[in-house]
Amino acid sequence: MATTSAAQREPALAGQTVVVIGGSAGIGLETARLARAEGADVVVTGRDPGRLEQAAAELGALRSAAFDATDPAALQQFFQDLPTPVDHVMSTAGRPYYGLLADMDVEQARRSFDEHMWLPINVARLATGRVRPGGTLIFMGGTGSRRPHPGLTIAAMGTAALPAMTANLALELAPIRVNLIAAGFVDTPLSAQLLGADLDERREQLRATLPIRRVVGPADVAALAVHLMTNTALTGATYDIDGGQQLLPG
Ligand SMILES: NC(=O)c1ccc[n+]([C@@H]2O[C@H](COP(=O)([O-])OP(=O)(O)OC[C@H]3O[C@@H](n4cnc5c(N)ncnc54)[C@H](OP(=O)(O)O)[C@@H]3O)[C@@H](O)[C@H]2O)c1
Q1: For residue 226, how far is its CA from the centre of ligand 1 (angstroms)?
Q2: Given its phi and psi angles, is residue 148 left (phi above 0), alpha (psi -120 to 50 degrees) or beta?
Q3: Using a 6 Å cutoff on CB, does residue 243 contact ligand 1?
Q4: Ligand 1, pocket-test mutation among 186, 191, 194, 216, most atoms within 8 A of CB
Q5: Alpha-carbon torsion 22, 27, 31, 32, what sign?
Q6: I want to staple 158 with a disulfide (CB 3.0 to 4.6 A). Which of 88, 116, 148, 166 is the partner?
Q7: Strand partners, 63
């Protein structure tokens, strides 16, 4: 079978600029790394300035900006300061909210809506004129809360809403393309934080049960993200990446 290695072909993102909101760790950092390897300039953001500075230095980032992306004024300022036009904006900021109604932390639950729903809307509002026609917006959702379970109400709302939001934005923002990545478990610092001492057991369980017989890593998601940036046929859709996790019983 004929293959084309990266060494033999043009880098897929040569001359392009990729912005990753939440690019200092996990899926965002890995996407920035791959975009860089494919020839892009990258702009990365995050809240923790130390972690961001380290990531930006490793990446050789064009620029970096430390701010809370759920702050609309800070996000607007960031977009205003961008060297325009940019080609792609991916948002990987945020974390899911899990919890029973009885002990719901309403502030945290609201915050997860800010991160997963209002942040994409605000990015979309700022994209026109700053993302080139044919460029992309990429947002992150999940597959894990598609099946109802106590404690998943808030996470499930985001899971259900984001594909509809993405499809509508793709029509409104055309010819900018808008896509959603819906991930299952991905082995990132966020997953490590959420699972704590149970992380290794969860990895083992996934290795034993997932149809792919391995754990999905941030590089897997990064490869999908770069594909969404480069395949100009794709817009308005949700791309599952979970190693078959949602096919398994309960
Ligand atoms: N990991 C999974 O299994 C999984 C599955 C499905 C969906 N997702 C979603 O995918 C996205 C990325 O997940 P991940 O696992 O890569 O997370 P991660 O390892 O925690 O990385 C998140 C990145 O976003 C930044 N960030 C978080 N909140 C931010 C905010 N309010 N403003 C600016 N930057 C912010 C973080 O840096 P600072 O903390 O310094 O700001 C970090 O750079 C999240 O939205 C997550 O909910 C993850």
Answers
A1: 18
A2: beta
A3: no
A4: 186
A5: positive
A6: 116
A7: 43
pLDDT tens digits, residue range 23-51? 999 999 999 999 999 999 999 999 999 99
Helix (H) or strand (E) holding 195: helix 189-195
Eight-class DSSP state of 210: S
pLDDT of residue 83: 84
Q: Could you tell me which of 153, 44, 154 has the C-alpha nearest to residue 88? A: 44
Q: Which pTM value belongs to this model?
A: 0.97
Give dist(CA 99, CA 117) in Å, integer: 18
Q: Answer yes or no: is the C-beta of 122 below 6 A from any ligand 1 atom.
A: no
Per-residue pLDDT of 176-226, as tens digits, reads 999 999 999 999 999 999 999 999 999 999 999 999 999 999 999 999 999
Domains observed in the chain: 17-239 (3.40.50.720)
Q: How many angstroms separate the first and last alpha carbons of the chain? A: 39
Residue 236 token pair: 């308005």
Q: Which amino acid is at 206?
A: L
